[in-house]
Each structure stands twice: as structure tokens, then as C-alpha cells.
Amino acid sequence: LLTLRMAPFFLLGLVSSVKTFKTSVTPGWYYFGRNMDTADCEWMMWFSTFREHILFALAGHVLFAKICSMLAPQYRSLVYMVYGLLAVWTSMGWTYVTLILSHCILLYSISLVKIRWLCFVSGLCTLATFKCEPFVSWQAGFVEGDFELRHVLFYGGCGFTIMRCMSFALENCERKDGNYNILELLKYNFYLPFFYFGPIMTFDKFYIQVNLTRKEWEMWNISLQGLSHLGVIIVVDVLFHFLYILTIPNDLKLLKHASDWALVGLAYFNLVYDWVKAAVMFGVINTVSRLDHLDPPKPPKCITMLYVFAETHFDRGINEWLCKYVYDHLGGKHENVVEELVATLCTFGVTVLWLGPCQAVLIWAFFNCFGLNFELWTAKFFSMEPFASFEMSMPEATSRRIRAIFNTLNFWSIVLYNILALNSLDFAKLVAKRLLLKGFPITTIIVMFVTYCLIQVIKERERRQALIDDPDPLPPAPPQSAATTAAAPTAAQPVADPSKEKAE
């Protein structure tokens, strides 16, 4: 029903794009007479400008890695570093390599002190030098030439380098016996598939995995993964020529004449597209890293499967980095309200610095931080009496249905909060107004009901997956009679294994 109601709107977008979207819609498939949506400059940059350079560099990396694996597998990580260093030197110049090495040496020297907070503060201050003037212009002046990708590669390589150096420094602080060699930091940082664009793999995982051997049947899985990414790229390219879901939100005059269904669907599909983009971009690089026997961070969880703020992330590598070094370190077990508030504020503070402080990022961080804390506040409130006893007395299915109602509101909060960063504040306000005010009650009730049914399906799928992962839970203790209890008052009771407990 949603697709049918949106079809006229997309046809309207196709017609009006010729007149009003000249900057975002360019000639595409000549033989089919289709224009192409080029509003997402990141996607266009990856698969037009970057395509030849990336394929050439990664192909060389795979070739040299394969030769080294056959001749001298013990030096494989060293070959990765040398090839990555030469590739960066060739593309950006020796002054850029010198700048990167200076940051690595600085943070390595600080890590020798083994003071955790000092390493963290030093890393954040170093990262801030790429986000504020005059430090940005001064450091950018070290890059040579007029290479068209110079600015993108400069900020990407420097930003990810600082995050990797911070991971190395913090892991060095945790090491009890001695220090890691600076050569290990250089191997970790100059691994070419991760150097410019990530994802970030924490140093402890990279250090263990870089010299491992490939598992059985892994090559078959890598081939399937590569083919699936190629298929997704083709599908996205088809959508760019038929559904202009990225250009349409830029024309607010057109959106005001669209139906409520069209706006709601457009907001949802914008998030789905962003998830697909992240999955493909990181997936292509991860496929190469799997050839090197690494186990990189998994693709982000699909927006359709998200109904809690704790799992909302579009870069699992950054998310794992933040959770390991900030969120879990400060939040503990995430049960105390004050500790959770401090942990989330610090986590989103680092995220804002990583993304670059601006109005859209600050608003996005505020609402997502509030949503994460509000989940804990709600859980704490309903764990009090009489709510806890009331839930224990009701059937499990009923409890799941009640929770799904709250998760439905969560789902659309996640959608509205994240289109702030993906599109604009005006588009998010327009969608919220149509969904909650102007579209009430028909559109609001129907959309929430469909979302509620979707969440129920997801919960059931997760419940079945939990049973597959743990098919043999501990059986409940048999009830004891009064005589048995009196005869053996000190009998030891079986202690449940916490690892056997199943989350809903």
C-alpha cells in the first residue's frame, strides 16, 4: 500500500527533476534515456572518481600480499605496511607521509607513559587540529600537487590515523609487561585497505589477527560476499536512475504538495539507502581485508531492524571503538542513571569532534543522546513496583506486545533524529509535522500499526535466533515438597549460569 501511494509522487519527481533539479540530476544511461541522481556526492565520488584509483591500489595490495603469503608468510604484515606506505607516498607526497609519521611518533611517545587519560586527551587534541583553524590550513599546506582527491584523502587519512593511534596508545596502557614496538603501530596504521576510509579495527584485534591463517571454506564465503556487494551496487545504480529519493528532499516546495504517505516513505527510504551505502562501501574494503585473513567489523545493522537507540549506528567500526574506550569504560554495566548519562555525553562529545562540530551534527547528537538515556530511564521506571510484579504475572507474549508499542515510538524517533544528519532540519520538521500533527489520526495510526507489526516480526525472529544460538538452556529447578525441604534444609540449590540467560 505504501509503495502504491508513493508511486505518483516519484513520477512527479521524475517530471519536475528536468526543470528544478539541474544541479543534482545529470545525464545518466544514454541508451535508456534516464537521468541520474547525483545528490549524494560521497557515493558519486566513490564509484566515479575513486573507482579507478581504488581498484588499482587494492589490486596491487592483493597481488603483493598473495606473493608474500606464498614466499614468506612470516613477513606478511611487514609487506602490508611497506606497500601501504609507498601507496600513500605515491598518491599524496612525502610531506604528507612525514605529517602522518609525526602524529604517530607523538602519540607513541605519550603512550610510553602509560597514563590512560593523558593518551586520550592528547589524541583528542590532535584530532581537534584537523577540525579547527588555523591548524587545518597549516597542516593541509604540507600536501603537494593539485590531485583532485587531495582534500578528501587528506582528511580521511589524518582522521583515521589519529583514531588508530589512540587505540594503540590505550591498548599499550593496558599491557602489563613492557610496551608494543613502534613498528607494530606503523603496521597497524599503514594497512592500506583501512588507511583512508576505514573501517576502524581496534589495535588489539588487528595485532592478533594480522598473522592468522585462513579458515576452512572462508574463500568461498569471501567470493559470495564480493558477488553480493556487486549485486547491491547494480541495484543502487538502477534506483539512482528511476527513484530520485536523494534529490527530492532538497525541494521543499515540491514536498509541501506531496502526500503524508510519500513523505513518511521518503524519510524511511533515505535511511535505508544510507545503510546500503555504508554496507557496500565498508563491505568492498572488508572483502579485501578478509583475503588478508582479517575479521573486520561487520556491516551496520539495517535500519528496518532497529527499534532501540543502543544499536543505532551506521559505522560499526567507530561504534566498537567508542564502546570499548569511552561508553563501556565510563558506563560500567549501564545500570546507573548518572554513570550512563556521563558515558553517553562523553561518547557523543567524541563523536561530534570526529564528525566536525556544526549545527546539524550538534542537534543530531543531542537527540540521539537523549534517546539513549530515555531508554534507560523508562526501563528503570517500569522495573519498579507495581510494574515489575504486574509484568511477571502476565504471559510472555503479552509482555512482548506491550514492549513493541514503546519500540514503535522508538523506531520513528530514530528515523526522525537521523534524517537530521542525512538531509536537513527542515525536511525532518516537515516529516514530523505530517506524521504526528497534520496526518493525525489516519496516517499516524496506520503507520504506527504497520511499524508495530514489523517490530513484532523482528522480535520473533530474534527470539528464534536466540534459541538456535543457545538450544539447551538450563531447566527450571523441580519444585520441592514440604517434607523434602524439612529433611534437607541445607541442600545446595542449583545456581543458574548467567551465560544461559536469554534476553528478550
Automatic annotation (TrEMBL):
Residues 480-497 have a biased composition (Low complexity). The chain crosses the membrane at residues 44-65, 77-99, 190-208, 229-249, 261-285, 361-383, 404-423, 435-455. InterPro entries: MB_O-acyltransferase, MBOAT_fam. GO terms for cellular component: endoplasmic reticulum membrane. Residues 1-17 form the signal peptide. It is found in: Endoplasmic reticulum membrane. Keywords: Endoplasmic reticulum, Membrane, Signal, Transmembrane, Transmembrane helix. GO terms for molecular function: acyltransferase activity. Belongs to the membrane-bound acyltransferase family. HHAT subfamily. This is Hedgehog acyltransferase like, b. It comes from Cyclopterus lumpus. The lineage of its organism: Eukaryota, Metazoa, Chordata, Craniata, Vertebrata. The gene is hhatlb.
